[in-house]
Amino acid sequence: MRYQRAAEAASTLLSQASRHLLTSNPLAMPELRRAIDESLDWSLDQPHRSDVFGPTFAENRANALGFEVEPGGCYATTADKSELATGAMRDIIGAGMGRDAARWFDARTEPFRVRHPGRGSNYGARFATAVDGGGLVEAQATYGWTKDLTGEFPRSIVEMASIAEQTLPGLVPFYTTIRCGRSAGGQQITFDLTQETSFSALKPLMDAFGLGHRHAGLMTLGAFTLGARFSLPARTSTLTLLRAGEKVEMRLDVNLDALPDAPAALLPLLRLPMAERPGSLAAFDRWLTALTPQGFWGPGSVTVLSIRVREDMPARLAVFLRPISFEPEEPEMGVAEPETATDSEDSDVRMQAAAGEFAAAEMPDWRVY
C-alpha cells in the first residue's frame, strides 16, 4: 500500500466505498477520474502531508459519498493548486450540471483566477465533490481568502462577513468556498478563530444571524463529543457561514490534530449522540465499514469534527477522515491515533470541511444569484 500512487489508493477506496454505500462510482465520471489522477500524481512512499485526500460524512447527507482533494499535494505551488482545482471543477460542473452552472461557477471564481501580485493568500486551493445513488450531488472549489478580496464578493457575503467580525472577536478571514449543486449554487466564507473561544462566546454571533435558539444544542453537542471541553484554544478551529436563501447556516470545525488532549476514544463519543437518531447512526456505521480497506480493523483517523446548525435544523455532526493508506507513518492494525500537526501544516489541516454538507436545494439558485 505504501508504494501505490496516491491517485490509485484514493480511486480504489472510493470505488470500494461506492459499492458498500450503494452510490454511483465517482470514477465512472471521466472528468472526476481525470481530476483525481492529475491531482494525486505521486507515490505514497514519498514525503507528503496526510490531509491531501479525505472522505467525509455528514448527518444531513448520510447517503452520499463525499471527499476532498488538495491538488498536487506538497509538490505544487499555490498557483498550480488554484489552476488544477478550478479546471477540475469547471469540467465536472459542466458535464454534470450543465453550461449555465459552469458559467455561474466561472463568474464566482474569477477573483481567484485573475489575481494581482500580492493579493490572496498562500493557501492555494482544494476541490470537493459528493455523489449519491443518482450521480453527482455537488462540486465545490475552495480558495484562500484575505480581506483585500472581500470587496469582490457578492454584497450579501460582504454583509455577512462584517456582522460576524463585529460580533465575535478574533475572527480572521481564512478561505472561501464556491459550491454548485444540481439546481443551485452558493458561496460560503470561513474564518480562523485566532484566540481562545468558548462555546458561550458564540451566542452573540448566533443571535445576530437568527440562530440563538440553536446555541444550547451546539454547545452541548460540542462539549460532549470533545470530552467535556467548553472552550477551543486559539487556531484550532474555524467558523463557516453560508447564506441559504433567507437563512444562514453556521458550521464549527475543530481540528483534532491541533487540539490539546483530544479524546482518545472519539468514535464512541460520536456515536452516542447519534443513538437518538437511529438513521444517522446506521449510516455512520455503514460509512466507517465502507471506508475500511480489506485486512484492516478501521478506516483511519477522524481529523476534523464539524457541528452545523440552521434556523430550522438543530445541531448535526460531520467528520473528515484521514484514510489509513494516507497516514504519514506505517499504521498499526486498527484505527490510527491522530498525529500531531506541525506549525507549517496547521493552517492547511484546520480548514478541512465536510464536502457536500449543504444540500444544493437549500442554496440560492445559481441561475439568479
Task: Give the gist of this structure.
The chain is of the alpha+beta class and 369 residues long. Helices cover 34% and strands 25% of the residues.
Features:
369 residues, 10-stranded antiparallel beta barrel, two-stranded antiparallel ribbon, disordered C terminus
What do these coordinates show?
With 369 residues, the chain is of the alpha+beta class. The protein has eleven helices and twelve strands. The protein has helices spanning 6-21, 30-39, 78-97, 99-113, 147-150, 155-167, 203-208, 215-225, 266-274, 278-290, 343-350; strands at residues 53-58, 65-69, 125-132, 135-144, 171-181, 185-193, 197-198, 231-232, 237-244, 247-255, 300-310, 313-323. The strands form two sheets. Strands 1-2-3-4-5-6-9-10-11-12 form a ten-stranded antiparallel β-barrel, surrounded by six helices. It has a two-stranded antiparallel sheet with strand order 7-8. A hairpin with a 2-residue loop joins strand 9 and strand 10. Helix 1 (6-21) packs antiparallel against helix 2, helix 1 (6-21) packs antiparallel against helix 10 (278-290) and helix 2 packs antiparallel against helix 3. The chain is globular and about 45 Å long. The relative contact order is 0.17.
